[in-house]
Queue: 2 jobs
Job 1
Amino acid sequence: MSEINWKSKCWVTTIFLVNEGKVLLSFNNNLKTWIPVGGHIDLGENPEEAIIREVREETGFDFEFLPKPKQDGNGLVKVLKPMQVQIEKVPHHGEHINIIFAGKCTRSFEKETTDDNERLKWFSMQELEEMKGKMLENVRESAIKAIGICTAD
């Protein structure tokens, strides 16, 4: 059996949370740019459990995955549909294998920072358009896609 190289590769999960047609992003102090909420998948967690924990820790918000997970009749199989899986090189951190979801807030409140004291901001579609060239393009495009997924529901 082969082993996963945890020293240079990390499994992470992020989510583009949408509420009232706006998407929540966090200003990452290390990367100096806006990214979705999320973090590392801890030992023993699956991606669903990790992102639920990360959202709770970073924002305190309640959310539902979109599209909604499907489960078979006997509860043995649950199918989540991530928006994408992304492999990204992170400065001073090796590679992240990032499982990216979209979700709709079911209850939220105004919060200005994460648990790590990183700024939070709700971006409208217009604000995302105005951020072209001012944030990572894949983040901006995915944020726009998430608004579409969550407002189509």
Note: The radius of gyration is 15 Å.
Job 2
Amino acid sequence: MANKRKAESGTENVTERNQFVLNNAGGAIVMDGNTAEERLQISHPSGANINLNNKTFSMFAPNNAQELTLGDKFSTTAGNSHIQTRGGSETRAYGDITLVAGAEAFFNEPVADEWIDLNQDIAAAKAGPELAYGGVGNNTDVEFQVDGTPSSDGTVEGGTYNTNAAQDNVQQLMEEKAGEIAEVESKMGEGGSIKMMSVKHLHLQAGAKPVSFDSGLIVKDGRSVTRKTVIEDGALTEIKTGTTLFESKDTSSAVPFGDIHLAAGTKIRGTAGSGGIGLKTSGQMDLNTTGRMTIGGAEVAIGGSTSNSAGTIKLIGDVDVFISSSDLVTVDSANVNINATDQVTVAAPLTVYTGDLHVYGDLIVEGEIVAMKDITAGGRGGVST
């Protein structure tokens, strides 16, 4: 059944009113032609409808809504886009999924490089010491000038140095570059962040399962080291032993799945509750930084262990290795070797050796020697106290 009505008025703001209605048992089509209020609505007896007016295009499905596109599909929103699901949600792609956030210029133009170049001088000024005692930047290898006198032993500590002029001029330098920096930052646009939030769990998985190929070869007794040194017939003799040698093997680089890459321009921050953080790998794990690395906790345990008890721990420092404790340092091992090319210094009010002390070389004592038993000289006689 069709119904068409039309009314015109020269005095009202709405100068034309008309409505066309097509209605039967299968649904209704309503077209309103009121000036500035034109509307088209297609309705189904279930309540499902499509509504088009001057401000909104809406679609309502009281039950299921299905859409099938056999070719490509493109959707563009000039303003904000909001998608809400009150049940579960699944997005499945048999190809790649790409999520991109940020201004188009940030990806098509060298905006980031321009910003870094403009801020390089400011960063260098901030990195410099407050006093001009010099130094080298850990990433840029920039050498900071020295203006002062070191201490008597040649070290910075205890020396006298003038104020670093670059530190005093940081604020001025920032003001000079503010205009150029603001121009570059305007190209970055607003937003550009991706936020992923979950009330319960967040699961990231790449690949169907971990690949547990052998990533190295453990060679027991693969390297010869000095176990201890003994004196035989008046001469020093090294007793050698074998120690574990680990050879790293690249067996997983050709696997075409299973990689997760995180790349941050500035910071990566992670916080976990009392459940802790666990990282486990059957391959090599590298934690490297050109800055400071801090490892701390109520208890810090570093263990080198394998299923066949062939683990090794190495502490290597280009310049210094410091071990400091306010109460106790314990070294517990069958053999302990200390190799020094210059000197070993023990600064303690009392040093106790619970076993024999064998000195290969001269024994020079600035104070008294107190012996509770006989002293044997050269193995040929006793000197009684």
Note: Helices lie at 104-108, 111-127, 165-168, 170-187.
